[in-house]
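Section 5.1 Outputs to date
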Amino acid sequence: MERNFKYKVGDRVIASDNVGIYKKRPGTITELWYNSDHPTPYRVDFDGWDGNGLWSEVHSLISPEKKIVVTTDGVKITNAKLYENGKVVKTAEAKCCPEDTFDFNFGAKLAIDRLIGTPVTTGEEKTEETEWKVVKRPVKVGDYIRLTKKSFSFDTVGDILKVDVVKVTGLATVYEKNHPNKPKNNSNFPWNYDSYEYEVVEKVTKETKPVEVDGFKVGDRVNCDGRNGTIIAISAHDNLGVEFDEPVPCGHNCGGVMLKAGKSGKINCCRWLKSSKLTHGEAPTYYNGKVVCVDNKYNTAVYTIGKIYQFVDGFLICDGGYKINSETPCTSFEDWSKWTSSEFIEVVE
């Protein structure tokens, strides 16, 4: 008959061998003895032992020695590796998007976030704490009372109890089945509290502030390099998860990391970003229309009368091949008309 083992091969344990060389010393289990009545069923390779292990009695499991090592190629990829007892047991990776400048600290935090666990997807950006306030009135059925005296051995001053029955004398009864300090059962045994042993209280819900990073919180509308999106998550290392309105290069869903707040989003639409990359609010929509020059008294080297010009993201490229309004992108044809000294007509197609 084979026995059931509490420990397995490879476990780090505290053990004592069957010949008295090692007593309650650390080692690694290398073999199991399946004979059901063997008194020392684990072969243990004790630390510092040069042989093939000794049959031993195991006393306890040793918690694995853990460490995280972060490495990078310095250009694009940052890796985080979790070691247990010198062996790699888990890895995670963060890649720098070609659009971004490589930042080791940011990549390291993101890689570690992905390494240490699954996301906390609460979906909530606010938490609530329950407080109690005293109300000066007689107790009613369904009220909560706070004990001001220790009435029974299992009670503590300050305990909050919900009242099941009230007598005209103010005696408040809590059934045993509803009493937080009694075993859970279906008993209607009454535990009675006189009016001088309690005060009537009501819940006060206190709303705490949302989790914020540099003024940004989950739900904020933001823009990054002209792309609009919404903050959907804040990681354990204060990186901001943004779900953009449209798919983005190197996009993912901001999943697989530990979160302080928020949840993952749409695949291919999300990025982890530093707060310095973001601006509050919507990015302006720039003018992308076509215009034709109809009068040009002062800028003959810049525009040609009768020529059609195309705006791209608010900028017009003149005959000289450069942006005329290089520091001020236009949001509309009217905006351009106020800015230029020449006269143009908008081309409507």
